Structure formats: structure tokens, C-alpha cells
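Teaching assistant's notes for section 4

Start the section by putting this record on the projector. Ask students to predict, before seeing the second block, whether Deferrochelatase will look compact or extended. Collect guesses on the board.
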Amino acid sequence: MSGISRRSLFGLGAAGVAAAGAGAVAARVLADEPPAARPVSSSSASDAVPFYGRHQAGITTPAQDRLHFVAFDVTTTERAELVDLLQEWTAAAARMTQGRDAGAFGAVGGAPEAPPDDTGEALGLPASGLTLTVGFGPSLFDERFGLAGRRPPALADLPAFAGDGLLPEISGGDICVQACAHDPQVAVHAIRNLARIGFGRVTVRYSQLGFGRTSSTSRTQATPRNLMGFKDGTNNLKLEDTAMLRDHLWAAPGDGPAWMDGGAYLVTRKIRMHIETWDRAPLAEQEAIFGRDKGEGAPLTGKAEFDEPDFAKTGLGGEPVIPRDAHVRLAHPTSHGGARLLRRGYNYVDGSDGLGRLDAGLFFMAYQRDPRRQFVPVQQALAATDPLNEYIKHVSSGLFACPPGVVDASDHWGRALFA
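Reveal the predicted structure now:
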């Protein structure tokens, strides 16, 4: 790989009426909703992902095409108000993921003198595979709500990584919600309505739209490409990997507090790509950086994408065919005691800067059993020596404990945490 720095050459070139509560109220509302709130599209039921279950949907669920991720700061100081909000959010999420309106009376069925129970932009649209996944950030476990003693050890603050350029205003957050769907309007509608319901109790800290998933979470899906043109997440954990999911994804009894049993930990990183610089790098250099063929996604020692990399194979002059600092080598499970991640990243383009360069890259999301043993060592290795760092910059970071799933209509997000 060329030792010339190509960056040095080309671097210049909301308020509203809250939704119905959870528990018995949620069960009654779901069973006996007014006609105006019933879904318009007859196809929504077949397009819906079940909301209730042992684990939250949106983790191992086959990755949808679109993302709207949001981090909230909690503004209320009353524990009871926060619990009420989580109940209301859960009831709304259970409805929206099934293609229904956020509230019992919907966008057009309530009193004309009051704001609607739903903002209305998803009227007539099917569920579009919508999933809503919630997580709690380290900052929630302070003195405000009496949760300090319930913070899981695995929710330890991430260390600083070499080369980070993190912006505090788009990092962290007390609570996150990940909305994934096949229709961007459905995902945006879901987040918009949760923010509306939360008015006066939470504020949006930051949000991110994503498109073109960059990882496959099921073997039924083809591996997608990132904005650098390479297949991404080939060695990602998959829905079908039952034993590995048990070992590497789901928090187990004894890992930490019982309220996290069956949950997972989410790390988010917004990674801006220096697209214009990358586009001027020779193909051979690009492939050496990744350690993979750009066309097939095969390791440089193989012919097909899922061929196992042969890190011992040497070429001319006895040098490894896959360079010692190649991305695939540094991130490979064999370099980290077998640690694996379940990735659900998305491409993003947030317009362009004042010099006409795309503000674009990867919104990285990875779920795991313990970030201290999985994401952190992998990222430390990448931050130290990955030549890809010449073309990227990490500008946002988040860490969240995502509890187990909501079992039924009497349950709600965070119930065991606040019990």
C-alpha cells in the first residue's frame, strides 16, 4: 500500500395529548379502539413485526431499509412522571408497530377542540416492518431517579479512542429509541409521535436518519455496501446463530442486575467519511485497506465473500497477502478472543459542508453482551493502526442498556428497572 497520504493531497480539494397508558388501559384500548383509529391499509397486518416477546424487536429482526434514531434527555425530575412516560410510550409503540395510530382516537377521531392523538402523516400506510427499540444511557443512572445502584457494570462509560473528534451535542443521551422500517415516513412518524407524547418530560438531544442498511442480520439477506463501496459486516452475528447469540449478544443471569437479563448493550458511533478523498484512492489501495476484494467482498486470500481469511498466507517478498494493518484483520474475531458483534448500521448523507463536500458516512450501531469485552477492544485496535482512519472521523458516540422485551400489554419498557 502506498505510503503517500491522500488526505494531504486532496483534503482541500413537541406538545400534544399523551397516548393511552400501558397495563390494563393499553389492553383495553388495543381491544376496543374507536373506528377512526383502526388501520386504513389492509396489508399492514402482514407487514407487522410482533411487538411483544422475550427480546426487544429491532435487534435480531432482519434489518429494515430505513432508520430514525433519537436520543432523549429527561427533563422531569419526578420518577413517577418518567415511569408514566415509559408506560405511555410502550402503549404507543405497541400500536404503531402494528400499523395503528399512536393514540386511541388517532389523527382524526378525537375532539375537534383538542390536538389529535396522532400526527397523521402515516395514515393509509402499512406497518412497513416498523420496530421500536429502547435503551437507557449511563447518564440516566444518576441521583435524579434513584437508579445509581441499578447501573449495570457493562454500562461503563466508553474510553476515549485515538483520533476521535466527538461532538458532545450529538453524543450520549438518557434514553434512546431506534426506529427501523422499510418506509422512511413510517420510521419518522414513530419518532415524531414519541417525542410529542414526551413533551414536558423529555427533550430530543439529537437524532439521525439512515438509509441503505450496511449490515445483514439474517442469512436470508445479502450483505449490503457502505458508502465506500465495500460490503460491510460479513462476519456479523446473524438471527440464525442461536448459540452465538446466547454467548455474544444477550445479557445472562449473573452478568449484572436481573432487570437486564435477556437484554443487550448498544453502542452507536457516527462515522463521517471523507468521501471525496476516498474516491481518489487507487483500487489496489482501497482493497489493501479493507483486506477484501471490492467486487465480491472476498478476503484477499479467497474467492468468495464468506471464505475465511488466511492471515498467514504470504505473497511477494514474504509479506502477508492481507496486510498486517488491514481492517478485516484488525476487526476479526480471532484477534479479540472470538468476540463478535451484531451490527445494524446505516448509511447517512446530511447534505454538504461550506466547501461542497458531502457530510456523509456510517451511523454504526452494534449490539452485544458486554461492550467492555467486545466493542471496546475491537475499537481500540482499529483506532490505533487501521489505515482507514485516514479517510474517516468518529464524531458521535453513544452507549445504551437495552432491556429485555415487553412480555404483554400489562408490561412496559423499563418496568423491571423501576420496580
